[in-house]
Specification:
- The chain is an alpha/beta fold.
- Helix content is 44%, strand content 21%.
- It has helices at residues 22-33, 40-54, 56-65, 77-86, 106-112, 126-131, and strands spanning 69-75, 90-100, 113-123.
- The chain has a three-stranded parallel beta sheet with strand order 1-2-3, with helices on one face.
- α5 (106-112) links the parallel β2 (90-100) and β3 (113-123).
- α4 (77-86) crosses α5.
- It comes from Massilia horti.
- This is CopG family transcriptional regulator.
């Protein structure tokens, strides 16, 4: 990879942006400088994981109550063609990441996907996302 090539996107993570006040940011930098964390990101990830662990029971109960698929779920063109052949319409409900293969034509997605509810990230072509916009909850 040359230096001018864009950095490949890590499929296991999504970038988020937060705004912090100067005092909070200064305290984070102090902890990093004192060696408690490798960098700002390390502290923020740790804080988020601690909060998720604190609320793990609520997450588990909600996942079960809402019948969410937990983790990463990929829908291939073959998956959607199988659903169409069986006369099934999918209700995609995922906590984590749902992805629809890039080779899925808009028509197939419209025929087979009834609704999409994703808490996390949805990866699909722009054309498929645009076509399904009214079905994305």
């Amino acid at each position: 990879m040359s230096r001018t090539d864009p950095k490949p996107k890590n499929a296991d993570s999504e970038k988020i942006t937060i705004n912090l006040g100067p005092i909070d940011l200064g305290q984070i930098d102090l902890l990093v400088n004192e060696g408690f964390y490798a960098n700002r990101t390390d502290l923020i990830r740790t804080a988020i994981r601690n909060q998720l662990n604190l609320h793990a029971d609520v997450v588990k109960q909600t996942v079960a109550r809402k019948s969410l698929v937990l983790g990463m779920h990929h829908y291939s063109r073959a998956d959607l063609e199988t659903a169409r052949a069986a006369g099934h319409r999918l209700q995609i409900q995922v906590l984590g990441m749902a992805s629809i293969a890039s080779d899925v034509p808009v028509e197939l997605a419209l025929e087979t996907i009834e609704s999409i509810f994703v808490l996390g990230a949805l990866h699909a072509s722009s054309a498929v996302k645009d076509a399904l916009a009214s079905r994305i909850l």
